[in-house]
Known about the structure:
Number of helices: 4
Shape: elongated
Number of strands: 0
Distance between the termini: 108 Å
Radius of gyration: 39 Å
Order of helices and strands: HHHH
Amino acid sequence: MNRAGFSLLIAALLSGCASMPDSGRFPSLLPRAIESRSDAMVLPPVAVATPDPALDARLAELERRLVEATATFDTGFARADRVANAARGVRAGGDAWLDAQIALAELDVLRTDTRLVIADLEQLAADRALELAPDYPGLAALIEQAKTQETRQNERIASIEARLAPA
């Protein structure tokens, strides 16, 4: 390539770099239609439970059973507590220790009544869930009350077990 051809090639290349770009060739930075739509999930309105007299009657009956179970357990606990205090410091296998173990077994049986009420309540809640029915406030409150009672009974039994010599 001669010197004139080389100069012409350089001039052509430089002229391409020096030209101003056409501003119409670049996309706009304004929001596009797809960017203005919402991708948020539309949630259905929360259903509110309507009063159910049949369920209210069932809950009243289960609450009565829970109150009875609590009273029976409390009576059994008072007896077991006295027996366990008499067995404090007695070696495992002694008569007082065996009496305390029997009282603990009786308490465990009494605690079953509370657990049966919880099972019935949870079955009611499961049945409502299967029907896609909304939560029923009275049912949820009674389940919570029954579970609190069960926890209290478990703690009271554990307090007696802690006072007795291990087997």
